[in-house]
Fold this protein.
Amino acid sequence: MSVLIFSGSNDRAVFAFCRLATIYNVKFFIIANGLDDLIFKSAYKNSVVFTRVKNELEVSTIVEISDKIKTNQEVNNVLILPTSEFLNRFLLDNRNQLENESIRIPLCSKSLYEKISDKFSFNELCKKHGLNTPKQFDSAPKTYPFIIKSRTYFNKNNFVGIKPQIIYNSKEYDEFFSSNNLDQYYFQEYIAGSCYYLLYYFDKDGSYSVYSQENLIQQSNGGSMILSKSSDIHNQEISKAYASLFVKEKYHGLIMVELKKFKNKFYMIEANPRFWGPSQLIIDASMDLLDRFMLENKLIKKPKIKLKDYKKDVFYFWSGGLVKDLNRSKSSTFYNFDSNMFIKIYNQILKNEIYLKQDTIQCYLSENNYYE
């Protein structure tokens, strides 16, 4: 079986998979997202087999490309990597047609995917299972900051809703609702404290692996993680509680749960049932999540990673995320960490910069403004 990858969205996860697939000698082919796709600045540009018009997805094109791959590689099936929310929703909407063409979609059912990925419904599911969630409000709280979230991924006009917004004052609130309809959103209290990810892979038989990372720096207003490190909170009872939820719901595949820890309690922030940005940490800290993914989907016969190989306190760093905040005059968010600590260990974390590697050095130079 060969893998078909859509690049141009969730780039850091795409590059992490390409690196591991190269180690395993798993064949992969890439559909780029426009001519400015970052993939063309990488060593993987030669794996691009098609460049689509930016953000367009068509079943007929996917089938045509997959048929060529199957013929050229002499394989019976092509697996599409579930790398982005927009792509995954498209794949699930067209699953029957694609799978009838021997194109595999390694995702759970559409209804379960949406129940977990849509923030409001997953919040309700967590409450049903007795898990802590931020306080919820039907109207704007009187104290700041608070969070505004889309109830569903697609709004009533079938457009993608905005990502969660942190509202710090009445001016930001008025600006937000001058161009958005209130009934498509809901309000949550802002939870301070430490920030973590629980990282899972669930097999269809209910067995699973779980790891964790502590997030130290995040892009402004709830953007992507800039600096994280592998953690051990998955050894606490909280990881079993979420695992129990997913097993009961018969979920299978990769999934990340974002948590905040405040006053010794964990609160669910959101879940992503797909690849996540800091996926390079899976490889660098010797987590077996991607190995299990490839094993269950018959891309490999034997994994290289074992549970005992896991390394705690390994860093993940994306300097480009920091540069983007600085260029927009935005303040990145620090969790249980500060700028002095960042400077002190900068040489150490730079060794784990996501793009400062031979296969993506041009991406690093471009993102860090070394040339126009």
Observations:
- Residues 92 and 110 are 6 Å apart (CA to CA).
- Residues 194-367 form a domain with the D-amino Acid Aminotransferase; Chain A, domain 1 fold (CATH 3.30.470.20).
